[in-house]
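Title: Prediction job returns without error message
Component: structure pipeline
Severity: low
Priority: P3
Assignee: unassigned

Description:
Job completed but the reporter wants confirmation the result is attached to the right record. Sequence as submitted:
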Amino acid sequence: MEAVAGAAAPAAPYLRIRGVTKRFGTFTALERVDLDVEAGEFVAFLGPSGCGKTTLLRAICGLDPPSEGTILQGGRDVTALPVRERDFGIVFQSYALFPNLSIRANVAYGLVSSGRPRREVERRVAELLELVGLGDQAEKYPAQLSGGQQQRVALARALALRPGLLLLDEPLSALDARVRARLRGEIRDLQRRLGITTIMVTHDQEEALTMADRIVVMNRGRIEQVGRPDEVYARPATAFVADFIGKMNFLAGRLLAPDRAEVAGAELLFEPPLALGPGAPVTVCLRPEDVVVREVERRPANRLTAEVGVMEFIGNHFQTTLHVPGTNLDLSAYLSINAVRDLGIRPGRTIPICLPPDRLRVFPEPPRPS
């Protein structure tokens, strides 16, 4: 089909990474990584320690140039450019503020070093300190501020030169849980208001799920999955992603048909089907919150009877283990307070449950090691 006359071509990604490999001696930290990041997007690199996420961030900013591959930023090949010639601001986990300089001088540092006029520096610093809510703290020193305030100063300094790309390297990991939760929202709101393309490295799945437009899940130097937070959570592409993000039941099974498996003595229907023959070993995954206990009679597939084990009160739900009599099937389940109250669920009681076929994720591989 011919292109429609006059139709605008789709904009190229702001950041394009192709075939990026990074080796340290005989160790391969990144292996042929491909990724596109759109202008104004907030992307989180998520994964365990040693997965390559920080190495990829350092390749993007030039601190560790790749051994192979290319990196284009705004259509410009930056693969081998020195750090000083790249267009980015960065916030480190340690904040890296100058302890002997005032907050005003810390934020102004890059502007002064680049030779900007004094009035422009003063105006820009005042604007940034107001932006991060620290307009009244300009004359203080880093040691006089809280950890959350210091992180905001580091963010203001990173934004001072109006970079096209903002890089955040574990920016909240040194803060306590309450401050971390508040700053998550502040950073996300600021990023949206500025429209700046942002990449954040984190090992904290909650940070990635609540802040990012898209999540890049990494493992052993490779990308396992890229997607919106809801996609990655609800439809993990691999058993690793299913295990790393959220809680998950992992059940060993074998295929009876492309859409049916025997799991610990129970027969379960799932979708979509797998292109494997009967007898193939599989891993069946189900999130604890996806165990259905209400109106089970209306669901024709995967209806079971289960014995309720010890119930632990978590605050907004109960966590329990369910055992299906006549099988070896045990499941971790999260039950809402309302469901427990309305249905009279208690330890030792037998209740009907359903495992919805569309909520089961099935992978053609053995379960993860326990």
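Comment from assignee: result matches the submitted record. The CA atoms of residues 216 and 226 lie 5 Å apart.
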